[in-house]
Amino acid sequence: MEKEEKCLRCSLFTTMSKIKMLIAFGVINVILWFIYYNDCFPSYFNKYTNNDEIKPIYAPIYNIPLFHIPLLNEKDMAMFYLEVKSNIWCLKQGVDLAKSKRKGKCVCTENWFGFDCGIPASVWKSSFLQEGKNANFEIKRRKKPRRIIVFFAVDDHSDLLDINIENAFSLVDVFLTIEEKDHYPSILNLVKEGYLADYQSKIIPIKLNKSYVIEKEEHWSVFMLNELWEMGWKKLSDFRPDDIFMFSHVSSIISNDVLLFLKLYDGFPEPFFFELRPLLFKFWREMKSNSTNSKLVPFKPLGCTFQYIVSLCNYEIRNFFSNSCNTDLHQKERFEKNFWTLKYWTVGNFYIPSGWQCNLCCNDECIKKNIEKYRKSGSTSLPLRYFLGNTSVIEHLIEKTNLFDSKDLSFEIISNKDHFLAPNIVLSNAKYSHLIGKTL
After folding, report:
1. What is the pLDDT of residues 43-79, one digit of tens each?
2. Which keywords does this chain's UniProt record carry (predicted)?
3. N or C: which terminal CB in the chain sees fewer CB atoms within 10 Å?
4. Beta-strand relationship, 276-280 and 355-359
């Protein structure tokens, strides 16, 4: 009997030990899962700032094998609009609220147009809408915002990558960047060390394992962006037909007004290109061409929907860059019958651009360093081919506001009263003051 009691106690002890071990094992697994999840996926837990304000924490996504592009079904369009009268909504960014409430309708501020003040000037005055005179297209407000995915070819990230991402962070859903294997400092390594930490929930940097040397900048950009597409789109999932994909060089900055329009409205043609203001070194120095053959913006950013890439380009971005996607008239006709009208559209024009092409825009030491690098490599890419060998001209352009004129190139100094001087992030942030400090 005593032996049986001892065996029973032994059995109970063994059972309890197993239960404790299982509980401990479960707790350890939960902790490990939490650590892994917190490291690899966006986390929406909150932390308190010094002002006792709750600030969301977003984990980096560069180390996630497959990133699920966030759905925007939960996004309320009311965050972008104001109700000035019952069921009359106007875009916050483009409306004069006081006048609109008095008149009971949307009254637009300068450079905004449309029935709800949601169309920026560069769209309104482009060949697409012709200031509202083109009756072939109808702009419609979406029920939910669309997603925008941007691909950047990066050769020099000084200031410009920061500006691009900070400028468009609230409107773009994913940024993908690509750099050559010898690019220094490496964007990928910098991101791992905390570069752009507040924005890493939307950044996927990719490093190419080969170099591509070519004199013409547009060819380099096409090559790099094609490589980025081949590697990058496979890292993404949950595509939607109306997702917009944009392909750009890091020196090109698309206006927030235009991005907002693309995000909130339907009815515009595609594919679309962006007419940018060509600048050199600073946002107040605009380049002017004295030659009809000159291309001051060698690679214009361009975009289209995912549906366009799939149905017309068969996932081949090279065809998209060469404008050969819609050469098959039967395929084009079928697309337009099932989806929407295809027409090339350039957003903006010379007088009202849709963004900025800021060549070598950084501080003075950075400019000199990059010019020296290009001299050694024998580069003839814009804008250096005009005066690469003339040190005195370069020094003059960096340090003085006086106009410079040559056979092929001249400059115009942009006044600080120009409403399109620079992106808001540049105008409002002291760390970019060196880019706008010498305006008239």
Report:
1. 322 333 344 443 444 578 988 889 999 888 777 788 9
2. Membrane, Transmembrane, Transmembrane helix
3. N
4. parallel
Amino acid at 380: T
**Could you tell me the two tokens for 253?**
């900055």
Assess contact for 278 and 412: CB atoms under 8 A.
Answer: no
How many beta carbons lie within 10 A of that of residue 290, not counting itself?
11
Q: Is 41 a residue whose pLDDT tops 50? A: no
d(CA 186, CA 154): 10
Among 2-6, 41-45, 112-116, 140-144, the range scoring the smallest mean pLDDT is: 41-45
